[in-house]
Amino acid sequence: MNDFRKRDDNEIEPELLEWLSGVHRIVVAGIGNPLRRDDFVGVKIVKDLQGISSSSVYLIECDTVPENYMEPIISFQPSHILIIDAALLKLKPGSAKLLNSKQLMKQHAVSTHLLPLRIFCEYLERETKAKIALLLIQPKDANFGEGLTREVQNTADYMAKLLLQLLPV
Description:
Layout: E1 3-4, H1 12-19, E2 26-31, H2 41-48, E3 57-63, H3 70-76, E4 80-86, E5 96-100, H4 101-106, H5 117-128, E6 131-137, H6 150-166
Parallel strand pairs: 2-3, 2-4, 4-6
Antiparallel strand pairs: 1-5, 5-6
């Protein structure tokens, strides 16, 4: 899966479309801290998806504790789980990368959460047999403060619009 460096570069759209093939029920989990600027991007995207009204889509604002939502995710019996989070990818701010759970083990992304995403994904994969992908976005500023930087806000807006088009309704 390729880097997504420019919002007008639609490489991530076919990747998401391919990953979503065969989707029956999907969990979209946004991770992030509202007090750490761009770290909040995952939750912000999920907030922007709240208009979806579908029994096939389960939206979760995990904040910084995705592990608190393991049981509700498992109970939903998803075919797909998309986790959205900020990660230090050594890319241009606002760049995004779509990884499957196996690629996460090879990726040198640094997360800010207590339970490493790799362990979270392994557990959910074992318990649900769902296809799991991570949509990771390079922050510009994860220092204390509120509000996304312009680059990350632009990526969040693009991703929310794209997901609204691609998710089952």
